[in-house]
Design brief:
Layout: E1 3-4, E2 7-8, H1 9-40, H2 47-64, H3 69-90, H4 100-122, E3 138-140, E4 145-147, H5 148-170, H6 172-182, H7 184-189, H8 194-220, H9 226-241, H10 246-266, H11 274-285
Antiparallel strand pairs: 1-2, 3-4
Length: about 290
């Protein structure tokens, strides 16, 4: 059996695949956080709960309405995004003139409420969600076996991340969004409905969390605590990439997933803490993050 640095090739590439899958979810979730913070200056601590809501929405669509994974991939993010827009209009819009801490405390409280409700109704055990028939099985690449669904998750996440970056950084709509965060009065003078734009932007960021939840359901099962287990790592990813940096969220999400996978191969004891060690080092050397601006 071929080895690299004393590690069997199959085991090494297997862990890199797991790292890429985790990185896909880190990138999607941190991208949603970066969109919300970078454009609205809101630290959305309920992002993990909204990720969990996406998984449960897919579960309900399948078991209550008989709609398969592909329908859930469209409807669940829209549903979760709509709930986020409602939260923004009724609650967050009242806090924009206050310190960021108030928004963080509100969204943290919402996360606890949402998780508590789902945990009370469904317990802590995971609920199974089967992957679509078209993506069952896998491909033998010679050096490793690649499950089709996991390959789909990586490609789909990367496509969504790149498309979001392009819209925000390279289109007129993205220019309006960025301008609205700097000087909403001038943007509104051009006939742009800034409050509606803010609401839609928040809904889009939350919808990304819902999308990640749908794609995670067949891999991690549907669990009320799945967001709580992930969101702390995702916040670390956002800090490392740079708060509000779209490209930083994408690159850092995938990159840290790979680092985590490699750590599981060469030093498994540190795999749960390596991202936080990197975060501490980055904060000491470059407090604004790798891609952030001062």
């Amino acid at each position: 059996m071929t080895e690299i640095f004393g590690v069997p090739t199959q085991a090494l590439f297997g862990q890199l695949l797991i790292g890429l899958i985790n990185g896909s979810f880190y990138a999607l979730l941190s991208l949603g956080l970066a969109v919300i913070f970078g454009l609205l200056n809101i630290i959305n601590f309920s992002h993990g709960a909204q990720y969990m809501m996406g998984a449960f929405a897919a579960y309900f669509l399948l078991n209550k309405l008989g709609l398969n994974y592909w329908w859930a991939l469209v409807l669940a993010p829209l549903t979760v995004g709509a709930s986020g827009m409602l939260v923004e209009r009724l609650m967050l819009s009242r806090l924009y003139k206050l310190d960021h801490l108030y928004g963080l405390l509100l969204t943290f409280g919402l996360a606890l409420i949402i998780q508590g409700i789902f945990r009370h109704e469904f317990g802590s055990a995971g609920l199974p969600y089967s992957m679509p028939e078209q993506l069952t099985g896998g491909m033998n690449l010679g050096f490793m076996f690649l499950p089709k669904y996991r390959g789909w998750v990586i490609v789909a996440s990367l496509a969504v991340c790149v498309a979001t970056w392009f819209v925000i950084e390279r289109t007129k709509l993205g220019a309006y969004l960025r301008a609205a965060t700097e000087n909403p009065t001038i943007v509104q003078a051009f006939g742009v409905n800034v409050p509606r734009m803010i609401t839609l932007t928040y809904g889009f960021g939350v919808g990304l969390a819902g999308l990640a939840g749908v794609m995670a359901a067949p891999i991690y099962q549907v669990n009320p605590l799945m967001g709580a287990d992930t969101i702390i790592v995702v916040f670390a990813v956002v800090v490392i990439g740079g708060m509000g940096s779209i490209m930083g969220a994408i690159v850092t999400g995938f990159g840290l997933g790979l680092v985590e996978g490699l750590t599981k191969v060469f030093y498994p004891e540190a795999s749960n803490t390596v991202i936080f060690v990197i975060m501490a080092l980055v904060l000491m050397v470059r407090p604004q993050g790798l891609f952030g601006s001062r």
